[in-house]
Amino acid sequence: MADHHTPTPDGSGPAYRTAGPEDGDPLVLLTAPQDTAGDWAPVRDALARGRRIHAPDLSGPTGGGRPAPLVRDDLLGFLDALGLDRVDLVGHATGALVALLAAQAAPHRVVRLVLADLPPALPREPPAAPGRITAPTLVVNGAADAAGQVPDARMLAIAADGRPVHQAAPAEFATAVEAFLAEVPDSELARRWLAGSGITQTGESAWWDADPPACSLTADDVSDQMGWLVFDDEDLGLADRLRVALGLMDLLGAHPLLAGQIHMAHLGPRGPLPQDVLWDGYRRRLEAVRDHEAYPSSLWLDWFEDPGTAGTAFAAVLGDDRHLLLPGAPEPLVRRARRVLEHSGPVGWDAKAETYRAAARFPALHHAVFRAVLRSYHDLYGDLDPVQGLTLLDGLDLAPGTEHLAPLRRVLADGHRHHYASPQAWDAALDR
């Protein structure tokens, strides 16, 4: 590993060390400020296979005892000086905290994030905002509250006897990190696909189109311009086109040219789309702590409102797993169930009734079941059996005075199936 590089010709900025092929994907290694880049030596060669490592010494005049947010700013300046737009970050101890803060402040610049021996957030440090950590994250031997600091992180424990994990168990640590970094997120595939058309991200919701006439773009602009082209890209296999489309939804949010094209491609001459990629992609995002609003909206508007796909889609994202809705069910499954239930109004009653009953046996989902029944009545394409719906409501433990509960019970007791079939019934129930 070469020593004593500096990021600018005048020698300003932190010294840093490099390893690996110059054309490799950039990987930045961060130690605690009191340590040096040489501390990565036990795993350097393994991590440098196929990657260009940059290991700055964020100490002395640029680190020392300074607060982590200031060191984070040094790190972002370091990336700017080297022209590294997007990097993988691996941090150790308070270097992991600096990496976390960088991923929070500039999520569009971090491809993947590895946090080793992550300490609890210090009282003087601002807590990480859960919704801002968008990079896939691996936490190795993190603090007890690491999941709270980094929602949706993958947690891994490696025996280290209190020593730095990359020094105590270098082979095991390097193997885990290599495997994690080898996974290319859908959002990264989407970024690379956009970059092929000269479009790069410059901020959380800001983009730049380098093709003449060069101009700045919003997320909606990118969706309007590129969202309908993915499934026409003959350079990509069908599974990769689907992954790019899902990645664009991750990056750009809900937009009919993104979500709608997936549904149309599934039903079109190139379909059906690969089921594992399609539905596993939806399930993972529906289980995330981070709210990917594009996905429940897409289920509702594209898949559930189409009678030809509603039953199959509902089964894939929840119905086939209803037997798992038992006491002690994992929280990710509960999050998925809650989001699907609350958007499932248009699904045919026969396709969803058993799942509703299974969810009603799980107290944490009682309010979601109520919302599901309510939307089944009010949705323009909703479907509901009034007798069975009322029986479901009778078994739910809901807060006294739950809004809309009383009139919903009244219309169901009177045998009404749907708001739009008898719109006066709801108004009458509100007056009773």
UniProtKB/TrEMBL annotation:
Keywords: Hydrolase
A Pfam family hit: Abhydrolase_1
Domain AB hydrolase-1 residue range list: 35-120
Residues covered by region (Disordered): 1-25
Top-level taxon in the UniProt lineage: Bacteria
Gene Ontology molecular-function annotations: hydrolase activity
Protein name: Alpha/beta fold hydrolase
Species this chain originates from: Streptomyces erythrochromogenes
